[in-house]
Amino acid sequence: MEQVPANKHFNTAIAHSIVNHQLGRDQESLYFQHWKNCGFCRQLLSEQKHAAGFTMTPQKPLTTFLLSSHFTIPYHMLCSEDAVLAISFSCDDINQKIRTTGVNPQSENPPGFSLRLISEIDAYFKHGTEFNIPPINVFFIKSNFRLQVLFWTWLIPFGTVVSYGDIANWCDKPKAARAVGGALHNNPIPFLVPCHRVIGKNGRLTGFGAGIEIKHHLLAVEKSI
Fold this sequence. Notes:
By secondary structure, the protein is mainly alpha-helical. The chain folds into 2 domains: 1-52, no CATH class; 58-225, Winged helix-like DNA-binding domain superfamily/Winged helix DNA-binding domain (Arc Repressor Mutant, subunit A), CATH 1.10.10.10. Helix content is 44%, strand content 8%. It contains 9 helices and 5 strands. Helix 2 crosses helix 3 and helix 7 packs across helix 8. The chain starts with 11 loop residues before the first helix and ends with a helix.
């Protein structure tokens, strides 16, 4: 039986190799079994999720800022002083999220990271370049399963597509592809958690909350289709 190399515990490079299907399914399975049974790897996964902001105890923001961009595809971003809470292509959706926070967002003097992110996303649309992922706050995510789905989706690298079944397998719920689709349909932070990179097993573009046309455009920008 093929063994997982001792020096290849969980890290994002291996996770990206799995996402990119650079490993055979048997080897992928071995890695996942190793990660589930290895205390060291479980700790690394936990630390990675926590560092990325995927925790069930997100802080309620005391101050929020609302920024909008109308470059190529209009979108709105709700953030705190140090993290992104939501990105939406819909005014109604972002307003609903604002009401949920109970905080009246400011439009003046937004934090520097948010202005850089807007600029980088605009460059992404214009040139197809990657952008840096800032800290996120999962205030709008209310279940461990959704956190798990979005964490694995967050790991999908630029220019790569995977299936809903892939995400379900990585969450150790191989029969939950439909539930994965539901979780991603309600992803509050598209772009940063790149749910547009998750497609049907047969290659169909399905399940994007903002609409299939936008999903198609994002994948075209990344030259994934």
